[in-house]
């Protein structure tokens, strides 16, 4: 029950980022130095914010911050930058691109009121799509901090984001899968064997996307030609990607190597992106180079971005802002370039940022919700490393929750074991499990191809394969 | 006898082409029991590898035999639990380590080599010395001057920046145990950084990864490291601005004897 004693008190109005926020709970008054302090303290517990020294010091402080944040006007985020406008091109992108007209329907709300709105019947799929350009990542992050897991699932499920290159990703009732055929020595026959396995398990509609070991241009060119060759030979309505640095992709394209999508890891601050060796201008250059090739048949979304909570702190570029808010800011970077695919690699970074299964699950749901709310085709690499306190049971839980929430795509790694990147993700079998459980279809063009090839039946489930299967004959 | 409940995959013969878990078959749409348990065992072993203690003393003894004047240092993370939760401490030298390095005579070496446990001491135990043995001939051929080899416990990649700076080295190569995977709990990575100093960005490093049996061989990794170091010195840069084009010099996938075209 919110009484006068619990109303937050704003002081020092006009001093950007400096205003203390206060809330009285019984005899105790909690004070938060500024907006980023309030956001950090309101974040559900995670090891990365503790590592940064910005987490709430007690369970009560965490809830006090949530209460204080809930009463903050949403429009505060348009005048108080968490990362200084002058120092950071991501902040400038967010504020310069803000669409005030799109924001109007919710501009009068507090953060808490915005949560109620998102869960109300007013927030229809169309209303949320129209709202997306009016929301900043900080608004999405703020409301997510006071949402429970079920709220994150329900609100995200209302969002619809559809993207296209050679097929259509994000239609209602569908889930796509990235086929990830990594090999520890980039061996072409090994990569090809994993691609075959994935295709015959009905995976690969999001992308056939390889993380190469090598940085070598000739090796990367060979791998790009290998995957492109499979797609062309069997007329598969999907796209290929070599997950290498954007500058490398630009160089490969300039040498005439067939690339469909350009990949890049991105983060939520200029300095963290610098740590990745990228900036907005470079990403634009990559997008334009790929679009100029006109390799898409049903659309021209040509970028593939990966993100993950903790990347900015890892690069020493977090500006004292919590990792979940910075993750949402990475989505502002992504949406500028109309990507085909964006996924959080939620458990990859390690236990110093997300300690255990509980923290990884929460972060996966937050990232998916924030990305979808901001208008992105968000997928998730449901994953963990061997030094985190997590296992396959945690991944089963997160996969099931995200699929229920309408996640755009997940990873398909043979047996869930990535033998190159040394972590565990979701498998081809996992994708079949969740399709069967929830009745989820693939991208329609890909689903039709699988059926025509006799790989899956009318119900979308895999069929036993005869030796005459064209893919098997073609591989011999 | 009932009907079989597991559907085998018709492409089992392709499993020989990759260590990836392919052609596993399915029970309905799910993993067969044997595969579920095989995976659980691999995960258990990888979990254990993270916590295997680093034998720094043994490594120092072996490096002494090779006449590499080894120095053992420790990061500011005192134990494994702290190391896992505090990567910032794993990037700093503890006071004794800093002192040990600054006490060495300053010789402005071309390269400092750091052997660090990282997330898999098992990888360092198996790969570090063979890699070094394959790399030293390149050092001799190119006439590079080496700093004393540093053996670092509870160390992250960026500890090399502090070590390289303390030694006044032109470049640092950090040989470090990668996070253990299910199929590869013993994979070594190498990170090369020019003009090492605390604050270097990851984008300013070149990386060779998956050095192990069944991955990148010691000979090939040593050649690639030599190629990268030579190009880094020539172009005065490491990181995203230096692309690995060493493959051009390979003959049938094998390392050449010389770096020149």
TrEMBL record, chain A:
Q: What's an example Gene Ontology biological process for this entry? A: ethanolamine catabolic process
The residues listed in the UniProt record as binding substrate, with positions renumbered to this chain, are 178-180, 211, 306, 381
Cofactor stoichiometry and binding?
A: Binds between the large and small subunits.
What pathway does this protein act in?
Answer: Amine and polyamine degradation; ethanolamine degradation
Q: What InterPro entries does the database record attribute to this sequence?
A: Aldolase_TIM (IPR013785), EutB (IPR010628), EutB_dom_2_sf (IPR044939), EutB_N_sf (IPR044941)
- Give the enzyme's EC designation: 4.3.1.7
Membrane-spanning parts = none
Reaction equations catalysed: ethanolamine = acetaldehyde + NH4(+)
Q: Where in the cell is it found?
A: Bacterial microcompartment
Q: Which cofactor does it need?
A: adenosylcob(III)alamin
For this protein, the record's Pfam families field holds: EutB
Q: What class of enzyme is it?
A: lyase
The record's section on NCBIfam families has: PRK15067.1 (NF011649)
What does the record give as the function of this protein?
Catalyzes the deamination of various vicinal amino-alcohols to oxo compounds. Allows this organism to utilize ethanolamine as the sole source of nitrogen and carbon in the presence of vitamin B12.
Question: What does the similarity note say?
Answer: Belongs to the EutB family.
Name of the protein described by the UniProt record:
Ethanolamine ammonia-lyase large subunit
GN (gene name): eutB
TrEMBL record, chain B:
- Entry's family note: Belongs to the EutC family.
Q: Which InterPro entries match?
A: EutC, EutC_C, EutC_N
List positions binding adenosylcob(III)alamin. Answer: 157, 178, 207
Q: How does it assemble?
A: The basic unit is a heterodimer which dimerizes to form tetramers. The heterotetramers trimerize; 6 large subunits form a core ring with 6 small subunits projecting outwards.
Q: Which organism is it from?
A: Nitrospirillum amazonense
- For this entry, the protein name equals Ethanolamine ammonia-lyase small subunit
Catalytic activity, EC: 4.3.1.7
Function per UniProt: Catalyzes the deamination of various vicinal amino-alcohols to oxo compounds. Allows this organism to utilize ethanolamine as the sole source of nitrogen and carbon in the presence of external vitamin B12.
Which gene is transcribed and translated to give this protein?
A: eutC
**Cofactor remark from the record:** Binds between the large and small subunits.
Q: Which Pfam families match?
A: EutC
Q: Which cofactor does it need?
A: adenosylcob(III)alamin
Q: Does the keyword Protein transport apply?
A: no
One GO CC term on file: ethanolamine ammonia-lyase complex
Subcellular location per the Swiss-Prot or TrEMBL entry: Bacterial microcompartment
Q: Which terms under GO biological process does the entry name?
A: amino acid metabolic process; ethanolamine catabolic process
What pathway does the UniProt record associate with this protein?
Amine and polyamine degradation; ethanolamine degradation
State the Gene Ontology terms under molecular function: cobalamin binding; ethanolamine ammonia-lyase activity
Catalytic activity as recorded in UniProt: ethanolamine = acetaldehyde + NH4(+)
Listed A to Z, the keywords are: Bacterial microcompartment, Cobalamin, Cobalt, Lyase
């Amino acid at each position: 029950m919110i009484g006068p004693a619990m109303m937050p008190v704003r002081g020092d109005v006009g001093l950007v980022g400096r205003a203390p926020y206060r809330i009285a709970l019984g005899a105790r008054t909690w004070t938060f130095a500024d907006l980023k302090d309030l956001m950090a303290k309101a974040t559900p517990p995670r090891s990365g914010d503790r590592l940064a020294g910005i987490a709430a010091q007690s369970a009560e402080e965490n809830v006090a911050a949530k209460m204080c944040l809930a009463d903050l006007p949403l429009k505060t985020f348009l005048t108080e930058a968490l990362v200084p406008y002058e120092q950071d091109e991501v902040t400038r992108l967010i504020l310069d691109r803000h669409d005030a007209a799109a924001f109007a329907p919710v501009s009068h709300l507090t953060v808490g009121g915005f949560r109620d709105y998102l869960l109300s019947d007013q927030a229809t799929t169309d209303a949320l799509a129209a709202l997306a350009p009016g929301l900043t990542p900080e608004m999405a992050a703020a409301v997510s901090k006071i949402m429970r897991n079920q709220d994150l699932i329900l609100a995200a499920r209302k969002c619809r984001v559809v993207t296209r290159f050679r097929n259509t990703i994000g239609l209602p009732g569908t889930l796509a899968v990235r086929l990830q055929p990594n090999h520890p020595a980039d061996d072409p026959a090994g990569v090809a064997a994993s691609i075959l396995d994935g295709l015959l398990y009905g995976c690969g509609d999001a992308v056939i996307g390889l993380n190469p070991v090598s940085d070598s241009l000739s090796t990367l060119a060979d791998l790009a030609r290998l995957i492109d060759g499979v797609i062309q030979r069997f007329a598969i309505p999907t796209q290929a990607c070599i997950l290498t640095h954007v500058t490398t992709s630009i160089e490969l394209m300039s040498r005439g190597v067939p690339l469909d999508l350009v990949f890049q890891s991105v983060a939520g601050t200029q300095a963290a992106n610098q740590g990745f060796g990228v900036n907005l201008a470079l990403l634009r250059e990559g997008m334009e180079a790929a679009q100029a090739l006109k390799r898409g048949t049903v659309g021209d979304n040509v970028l593939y971005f990966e993100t993950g909570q903790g990347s900015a702190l890892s690069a020493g570029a977090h500006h004292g802002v919590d990792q979940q808010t910075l993750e949402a800011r990475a989505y502002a970077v992504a949406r500028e370039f109309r990507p085909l695919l964006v996924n959080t690699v939620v458990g990859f970074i390690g236990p110093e940022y997300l300690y255990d299964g509980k923290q990884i699950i929460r972060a996966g749901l937050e990232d998916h919700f924030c990305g979808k709310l901001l208008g992105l085709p968000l997928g998730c690499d449901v994953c963990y490393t061997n030094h985190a306190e997590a296992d396959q049971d945690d991944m089963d839980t997160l996969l099931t929750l995200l699929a229920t929430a309408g996640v755009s795509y997940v990873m398909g790694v043979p047996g869930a074991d990535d033998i190159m990147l040394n972590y565990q993700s979701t498998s081809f079998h996992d994708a079949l499990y969740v399709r069967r459980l929830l009745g989820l279809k693939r991208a329609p063009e890909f689903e039709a191809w699988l059926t025509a090839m006799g790989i899956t039946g009318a119900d979308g489930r895999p069929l036993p394969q005869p030796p005459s299967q064209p893919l098997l004959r073609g591989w011999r | 006898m009932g009907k079989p409940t597991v559907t085998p995959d018709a492409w089992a013969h392709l499993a020989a082409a990759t260590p990836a878990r392919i052609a596993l078959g399915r029970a309905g749409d799910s993993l067969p029991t044997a595969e579920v348990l095989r995976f659980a065992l691999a995960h258990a072993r990888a979990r254990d590898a993270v916590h295997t203690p680093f034998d720094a003393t043994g490594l120092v003894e072996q490096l002494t035999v090779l006449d590499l004047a080894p120095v053992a240092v420790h990061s500011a993370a005192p134990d494994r639990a702290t190391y896992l939760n505090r990567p910032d401490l794993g990037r700093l030298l503890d006071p004794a380590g800093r002192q040990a390095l600054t006490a060495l005579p300053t010789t402005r070496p071309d390269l400092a080599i750091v052997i660090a446990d990282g997330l898999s001491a098992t990888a360092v135990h198996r790969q570090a010395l063979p890699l070094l043995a394959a790399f030293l001939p390149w050092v001799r051929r190119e006439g590079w001057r080496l700093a004393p080899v540093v053996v670092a416990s509870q160390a992250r990649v960026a500890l090399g920046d502090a070590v390289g700076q303390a030694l006044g080295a032109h470049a640092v190569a950090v040989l470090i145990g990668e996070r253990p995977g299910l199929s590869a709990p013993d994979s070594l990575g190498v990170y090369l950084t020019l003009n090492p100093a605390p604050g270097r960005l990851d984008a300013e490093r070149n990386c060779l990864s998956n050095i192990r049996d069944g991955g990148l061989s010691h000979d090939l990794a040593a050649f690639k490291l030599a190629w990268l170091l030579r190009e880094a010195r020539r172009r005065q840069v490491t990181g995203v601005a230096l692309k690995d084009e060493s493959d051009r010099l390979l003959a049938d996938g094998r390392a050449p004897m010389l770096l020149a075209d």
